[in-house]
Prior knowledge:
By secondary structure, the chain is of the alpha/beta class. Helix content is about 30%, strand content about 25%. It has five helices and eleven strands, in the order E-E-H-E-E-E-E-E-H-E-H-E-E-H-E-H. It has a seven-stranded mixed β-sheet with strand order 1-3-2-8-9-10-11, with helices on both faces. The longest helix is centred in the middle third of the chain and has 21 residues, at about 65-85. It starts with a strand and ends in a 6-residue tail after the last helix. D-malate binds near residues 62, 101 and 102. D-malate (MLT) binds next to helix 3.
Amino acid sequence: xxxxxxxxxxxxxxxxxxxxxxxxxxxxxxxxxxxxxxxxxxxxxxxxxxxxxxxxxxxxxxxxxxxxxxxxxxxxxxxxxxxxxxxxxxxxxxxxxxxxxxxxxxxxxxxxxxxxxxxxxxxxxxxxxxxxxxxxxxxxxxxxxxxxxxxxxxxxxxxxxxxxxxxxxxxxxxxxxxxxxxxxxxxxxxxxxxxxxxxxxxx
Length: 203
Ligand code: MLT
């Protein structure tokens, strides 16, 4: 996959940056920089092209996913991350997926369906990617979700449903609510930064 790797000196861990629809491997770099100054960043570009806009998987309509493509692309992304960890010499045990919107949806799907792809995820404005995910224990995994109370794309109940799915699978999960829509806010990034700083594996 198209990507860019920014190594950090004495890196405590790695953030995998997964953009929203229409973004690319550079899009979440400013977000990542707000979250940490001592982690590697791996920016990845989604392989799907929707009328010129990059995405991580196909959709049939707004919010209606092509489930077969989502499964295929999730495996593809997981394989890419594993190969990149060998190439750039970082550990998946201190790796977090950082996704926004479409990138958060594939990040959530990867956490729910792929063993040992990351120790946790920061999901900004994610939906429930799939309701029949694998029977995987997420014990020991750390999930930070942030959502907007008046997000026109992601209703509140869907954020809460995703949170419940993570909890039921044993993850330690938290939701940060913003009085906002689908856009990223500085205040949610401040909350994510604080959350990340308290995770033992990288602090
Ligand atoms: C998706 O298709 O993943 C969601 O609708 C979010 C987005 O528009 O990218």
